[in-house]
Structures are given as structure tokens and as C-alpha cells.
Design brief:
The chain is mainly alpha-helical and about 100 residues long. About 90% of the residues lie in helices and about 0% in strands. The protein has helices at about 5-55, 60-99.
Length: about 100
């Protein structure tokens, strides 16, 4: 049988490992999301420039719609990132409290 202090040490080690894994996963997710957002914004800017240069004023509505869609998408992505970070912080705090 493990002694009481040995059990506590094992629990602490497991909790620390879990917290580290969660933090690494969160960082990876945030980096991926940021890269995706940057790529989307660049693509949309290129499309808007092409549309503005090559079309008449009647097609400008399309540009407005695309801009609105991109802005909404960026906002949604930002909210998701914030939620993920908050969840990770809560998990880390709970883990520390458990220790």
C-alpha cells in the first residue's frame, strides 16, 4: 500500500502533467486559430481588391456582403479562442486548488 504522502505526491504529479498538457493544447489551438484568421482576412482583402478593380459599381454589394461575413467570422473565432482560454485557466486553477 502507498503511504498517504506518496499518494499525495502521485496526485500532484498527475495534476501538474494534466495542466501542462491542457496549456500546450490551448496554445496550439490559439496559434492555429490565429493563422486561419490571418489567412482568411488576406484572401478576403485580395478578393475585394480584385472585385473593386474588375467590376462595375453594381457588384459592390457583393463586396459589402463578403466584408460583413468575414467580420462576423473573425468575431466568432475570437469568441471561441477566448472561451477556450478561459476554460483552460479554470481547469488550471481547479487543478491547483485540488493540490
Amino acid at each position: 500500500m502507498l503511504k498517504k504522502c506518496e499518494v499525495h505526491v502521485v496526485v500532484v504529479v498527475v495534476v501538474v502533467v494534466v495542466v501542462v498538457v491542457v496549456v500546450v493544447v490551448v496554445l496550439v489551438v490559439v496559434v492555429v486559430v490565429v493563422v486561419v484568421v490571418v489567412v482568411v482576412v488576406v484572401v478576403v482583402v485580395v478578393v475585394i481588391v480584385i472585385v473593386l478593380v474588375t467590376t462595375s459599381s453594381s457588384s459592390r454589394l457583393l463586396v459589402v456582403v463578403v466584408v460583413v461575413v468575414v467580420v462576423v467570422e473573425v468575431i466568432v473565432v475570437a469568441v471561441v479562442v477566448v472561451v477556450v482560454v478561459v476554460v483552460a485557466v479554470v481547469v488550471a486553477v481547479v487543478a491547483v486548488v485540488v493540490m
